[in-house]
Specification:
single chain; alpha/beta; five-stranded parallel beta sheet; two-stranded antiparallel ribbon; 18 helices; 11% strand
């Protein structure tokens, strides 16, 4: 309700009262009346004020430079539709606690999105490698780009964690086609399930180009819905890894559909592995079919209307001996030669304004329960070194 409406209501309330009783209309009674009046107003008529640190619009399609340094909020259920597998554990704890996903709009994400907006259907595929110090928000930068592409109706091919594949403790099986290589049916089934959840609207319209034989009597004919490939892998686990290979091959030949290939922990596709075979022997990376399928994708991206957006990570690496966190520090030369041309996107620590915005958001969502003043701001900045992950973890304990 507006101020004028409320004042008019006070006049109507006090008009019938004699002057003697008007003197008894205390401030407390006016407050009680105001509460009753506001509670009687239907929720749709009440104006919900958006905090100053939050964007007025939650649609990533509409974000621009004016929104830099603000937080955009996605309800937990809507966030799970785009990321059914979740993201990093620390961030998912915040999402579960607050009931929403709040992501800070930062320049690296907007730079990538602006390039995607300029791309037309005849341009060659764009390639970005997100890098930077540990715990500075590379995963959330990638998540921002993914949410934009989802709203723009792109088909999403997302690997949320390569390290979960190359350091997996799950069972591996000898490939049906090459006994020298191994399949990871559990990881393959989980990825196919998430892929179908995110891209259900595209799977019925996309058609296969090739003809595939799965067994003596199981054939996928050319022109079949692409969803049939996904279903084949989900219904028969020993075909799940092969189904991913066929799916990626078909997407590489696709024309007329915008496709985002998003890979977090991208350097895990080219490093050591701790996966063991049934004889408890450590396998080489080249013997894991699930990994090699995506390695081959680097050389066969669709030539039109596609983008490869990757993020590097040192956290969780097996025998991490890299002193740096740049592109050339974490990726071998032959990988960079295959990915060229690419754009290196650096994600740094919070600026002073970004840190203040995030702390205001944490106070608003009760993630930082005790609030903060200038002294505590200095303490958090010193302890966290303005790194987003450290700021989040410190605020969770305050």
């Amino acid at each position: 309700c507006t101020i004028d409406t409320f004042i008019q209501s006070i006049k109507v309330y006090t008009m019938p009262l004699p002057r003697r009783q008007l003197r008894r209309v205390t401030f407390a009674k006016v407050v009680d009346f105001a509460r009753c009046y506001v509670s009687a107003v239907p929720p749709r008529q009440r104006r919900q004020e958006v905090p100053i640190f939050q964007t007025q619009d939650s649609n990533p399609l509409n974000f621009g430079d004016r929104d830099l340094g603000k937080v955009y909020v996605t309800p937990r259920q809507a966030f799970a539709e785009v990321f059914p597998h979740g993201l990093r554990t620390a961030f998912m704890k915040e999402v579960q606690s607050c009931g929403q996903a709040g992501i800070l709009i930062r320049k690296p994400a907007l730079d990538i999105i602006n390039q995607l907006k300029k791309q037309n259907r005849f341009d060659t595929s764009l390639k970005f490698i997100i890098n930077g110090p540990d715990g500075c928000g590379k995963t959330l930068t990638l998540a921002h780009v993914i949410q934009y592409c989802r709203r723009a109706n792109w088909l999403l091919v997302h690997i949320p964690s390569v390290f979960q594949w190359v350091y997996s403790k799950q069972e591996v099986r000898h490939s049906l086609h090459d006994p020298q290589t191994f399949d990871q049916p559990d990881e393959a089934i989980q990825w196919l399930r998430n892929f179908r959840t995110v891209n259900s609207s595209h799977l019925a319209t996309l058609k296969t180009c090739g003809r595939y034989t799965w067994g003596k009597a199981e054939i996928t004919k050319a022109g079949s819905p692409l969803g049939n490939i996904v279903d084949q892998g989900l219904q028969k686990p020993f075909y799940a890894t092969d189904a991913i290979g066929v799916l990626l091959k078909e997407l590489a030949q696709s024309r007329g559909h915008k496709i985002l290939f998003a890979v977090d922990e991208f350097n895990g596709l080219f490093g050591p592995t701790s996966v063991r075979d049934p004889d408890k022997q450590t396998l080489k990376l080249q013997s894991l079919n699930l990994v090699t399928h995506f390695q081959k994708l680097m050389n066969s991206l669709p030539s039109e209307s596609s983008a490869l957006v990757t993020a590097l990570s040192r956290r969780g690496m097996f025998h991490n001996s890299s002193a740096g966190f740049g592109v050339r520090d974490l990726l071998p030369k032959w990988c960079l030669d295959n990915v060229k041309p690419y754009v290196s996107v650096r994600v740094e620590e919070y600026t002073e304004d970004e840190m203040t915005t995030v702390l205001d958001y944490y106070v608003h969502t009760k993630w930082l329960v005790s609030g903060y003043d200038h002294k505590r701001l200095i303490e958090i900045r010193f302890l966290a070194a303005r790194k987003p992950l450290a700021v989040q973890q410190i605020c969770a304990t305050c």
